[in-house]
Every structure is written in C-alpha cells, then in structure tokens.
Amino acid sequence: MLTDTFGLSHLWAQSDLLIKLVAFTLVVMSVASWYLIVVRATRQLRVRRIDGAVEGFWHAASLEEGLARLSQDAPDSPFEALARQGAAAAEHLRRHTAAETLGGKLDADEFVTRALRKSIALSTAQLESGLTVLASIGSTAPFVGLFGTVWGIYHALIGISTSGVATLDKVAGPVGEALIMTAFGLFVAIPAVLAYNTFTRANRLELSELDAFAHDLHAWFTTGSRLASTPATGQAAKAGSGAARDIGLTSAGAA
C-alpha cells in the first residue's frame, strides 16, 4: 500500500523548489559525467588501434614517409603532433642556423628539446581535459544528494509534527522518499570516480610512451640516429621516460 502512496512521483509532487533544484543538479552532473565517459572511452579505443604507428614511423625510409604513416595510422594523435613539432624545429634550425637571430643562436639540442617539450605540454593539457570535471562530480555528488536528503527529512518531520500523527506509516514514507536523494547522489558519483581513476591511469601510460617517443626523436634530430632499444619493452619504456625527464622533455603537467 505504501508503494502505491509513496514513490518518486509522490516525492516530486510533494517536494519544494530546493529539492527539485537538487534533483536537477544531480541530473546535470550525471549527463555531464556520462558524456565525458563516452568521449574519453571512445578516444581510448582509438588510441589502442594506433599502438603500431610509432614503430611504423621508425621503419619508414624517410622522415616525410614516417610523418605520412603517422598521419594515416595515428591522425590527430599526440604522437603525430610530437613528430611534426620536432621535424618543424629541426627544419627551422637547418634554415636559420646561420642567421643573426635569437633562434639561430640557440644550440640545436636546446632548440629541439624546447619544441618537443612544448608539444608534450599541449598534449598533456589535451589528455587531462575533462578529468577535473569527473573528479569534481565524483567528490561532490554524494554531498549534493545528502543535502537533498537532510532537507527532505526536515520537511517530512515538519509535516508529521503538524499533523500530530507519528505512526510508522506516516514516518517511513516521507523519510524513505528523502533518502532516495542520497541514493541518486551515489548513483552519479560512483561512475564518475571509477572513470576518473581509469582514465588517469590510461593517460599516465600514454604519457610514458610519449616521453619515450620524444627521447627517440630528440636523439634522431640531434645525432641523426635513433637510440638502440633494450630487449625488454618495459625497461625500454622506463628508460625512455627517465631519459626524457633527464633532458627536460617531460612537462610539468606530465610529471
């Protein structure tokens, strides 16, 4: 009988403007978080398909062919942007190395390093876009729902005291309706927190690979040859990332 009398429709009909505002806020948070989750998940699936793009770049016969392969296998990716930024810096240095300009006086190693570091910084900012929103939703949604619960229980108790009837059926229904707001807050927060942790880890792995690629590019543009890779892939990625930090390629955001 209580299920026919009380429920979501009854809660919405009996709620005041503040409760409706809390419910609307939770709906907006849920839509925003799921939109970011879908967008980021789609991007991660696309990143998995371009794992061999970097090796394809190094197996190319020339720089132009390597850049073309990256454009085909990893379009609009941080790896393509990094390679093109390094190539543009090397070309600029080749053309203006003898010119009496500030850029022409810079050491080749420093000039290429700055170009690669700038590309990594831009890619890091792009990778982290939306994560702040997910973190904010995951941390605040439960409290928004709890606020709605507290306010709903307050109004329920005021109604009970006004009627002068405090039987179980008069108390359980309104209080149970108010507790639904806490459940809504958790329903919004849990996916956002899980998605934030998942995407943060994925970004950390991608930035580690980007650091290793940047170190190889730096060696190739400054010495004309790529560093020999170690037998273990994990050791190579770790060594590349550490070396990239040693030469200052890792941006502050990536660190």
How is this structure best described in words?
The protein is an all-alpha fold and 255 residues long. It has one domain (2-246). The protein is 81% helix and 0% strand. The protein contains 11 helices and no strands. The protein has helices at 2-5, 8-14, 17-48, 53-58, 63-73, 78-96, 102-105, 108-127, 131-163, 168-223, 233-246. α5 runs antiparallel to α6, α6 packs antiparallel against α8 (108-127) and α10 packs across α11. It is rod-shaped and about 90 Å long.
Strand content: under 5%
Number of helices: 11
Characterize the main sheet.
Answer: none
Global geometry: rod-shaped
User: What's the structural domain tally?
Assistant: 1
Which residue ranges are poorly predicted, with pLDDT under 50 across at least 5 consecutive positions? 230-247, 251-255
Element order: H for helix, E for strand: HHHHHHHHHHH
In whole angstroms, the N-to-C terminal distance is 59 Å
How large is the radius of gyration? 28 Å
Q: Structural class, from helix and strand content?
A: mainly alpha
Helix content: over 70%
Mean pLDDT: 76
Q: Total strand count, please?
A: 0
Protein name: Biopolymer transport protein ExbB
Membrane topology: Multi-pass membrane protein
Pfam family, one: MotA_ExbB
Organism: Aromatoleum toluvorans
Give a short synopsis of this structure.
The chain is built from eleven helices and no strands.
Helices and strands in order:
Layout: H1 2-5, H2 8-14, H3 17-48, H4 53-58, H5 63-73, H6 78-96, H7 102-105, H8 108-127, H9 131-163, H10 168-223, H11 233-246
